[in-house]
Design brief:
single chain, alpha+beta, Rossmann fold, 4-stranded mixed beta sheet, two-stranded antiparallel ribbon, 4 helices, 29% helix, globular
């Protein structure tokens, strides 16, 4: 993705986060966008660390936008959530045949995770996934206060 971004927008400073810290000083950014990022981080503590770092690097009144996946209630998803719940300790985590480990979230977890921010907007969505399935989702705007 970074390579593609550099090819398409060579003037952007695109980086891969390689440590627990975001490599910028406190209060550096007006806005942060997380687009399907949380679904790729299945561990609660790793998600909390990321949100903490985002809070640190956002300026006062900076905006956080999150667009991601929520739990689904169809048989296919329930089956895979249940299959991997014991392995990962969290309902909603599953593995794809390609080996990727992904997570769909409860709204309660999203509210707790994003509680350091003042929510300004939250809406449910229905996405069509890369595999052609539908999935519950949301978008969220929050402000650092």
């Amino acid at each position: 993705m970074i390579e593609r971004g550099h090819d398409t927008f060579p003037y952007l400073d695109l980086k891969v986060k390689t440590s627990d810290k975001i490599d910028y000083p406190d209060n550096s950014f007006d806005a942060v966008i997380l687009f399907a990022v949380l679904t790729c981080i299945h561990d609660n503590s790793e998600q909390e660390a990321l949100i903490s770092e985002i809070h640190r690097v956002l300026k006062p009144h900076g905006v956080l936008y999150v667009n991601d996946f929520l739990l689904n209630t169809d048989e296919r998803n329930i089956t895979r959530y249940q299959k991997f719940e014991e392995s990962y300790g969290t309902y909603g985590i599953f593995e794809l045949p390609e080996g990727a480990v992904l997570r769909h979230h409860s709204e309660e977890w999203i509210r707790e995770l994003l509680s350091p921010f003042q929510q300004t907007e939250y809406h449910h969505l229905t996405f069509t996934t890369m595999n052609g399935h539908t999935s519950n989702g949301f978008y969220y705007f929050g402000e650092k206060v």
